[in-house]
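Need the bound structure for aspartic acid, inputs here:
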Amino acid sequence: MSVLVVGTGGTIAMSGASGVTPTLTARQLVDAVPGLGDLPLTVRTLCNRPGASLTLADLGELLRLIEAEGRAGAVVMQGTDTIEETAYAVDLLHRGPQPIVVTGAMRNPTLAGADGPANILAAVRVASSPAARDRGCLVVLADEIHAGARVRKTHTSSVSAFTSPLGGPLGYLAEGRVHFVQRPETRFTLPPLPSSTAAPRVGLYTATFGDDGALLESLAAAVDGLVIAGFGVGHVPEGWPPVLAAIAGRIPVVLASRVGAGFVATGTYGFPGSERDLGERGLIAAGALDPYKARLLLQLALLHGATRAQIEAAFGAAGGLGAAAAWPWSARRAAA
Ligand code: ASP
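Answer from helper R.:
Posting the output first, comments after.
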């Protein structure tokens, strides 16, 4: 099956003697992979930037390119720093059945044991696999296949930096074969990005030990929506709730957990600053969405003009604490 391979930069494309920077084209990267030569690939370089500098507008361009090329699957090579976010955004915005597989490298091409070529080969294999259809955006590194909606970068430098703390990988590659071992029940998708509208500004603020919350108001004044990464199941210091309640009266405020895996609670604790207190004061529970993914969902929902009720329904569905059927946009059900 024909696959589109798109380069956007990142460590996988970096070279240089005094500090590596993205310089290599997608074609150069593909040509350096033994075993790819015979496969029907279309290769494009969209941009050459570190993952940290990619934007929502880049993702819009990427999705338009993928749609225009109309291949059976696509591989996106990108900086690993933001894969856990871009892959979720792409998963939300890609409505078609063809797999979009994001990959990258933890070791740049100048290093011994560079992992880029193996990751590109594995990603192309997954993107070519009929079993990968109707699964949205997948992330493939170190012979593991992760859901864009769940994957996290959980190590700064290991070649096995990508994990899915809630649920584990969707599959693996072994001897070049693609093996899926599970399928999330539902894919939630959004309408395409409008090409001209500026993205709403969504802030992310993490609860930390002893923080009196004095910065919350000034942050809230500069944003259209706010995500709080609370302690544990969704807790903040006892002085924060009145401030957060006032902010939640003006803009949507989502409560996620800074822990990195698991659901925020909604009805267990009753102390000031507990998840229950914050829910009663108008914060929206992120469920199992980590703060980074919650921030993207809120930004995209705002971009689509979602009402407060729609934002609540979206987080209930995507975060797993509410009804999947209440997702405000037409959801694409995963094939059985
Ligand atoms: N360390 C990053 C990478 O793996 C740098 C980046 O995201 O561009 O690609």
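Comments: The two ends are 22 Å apart (CA to CA). The first helix runs from residue 26 to 31.
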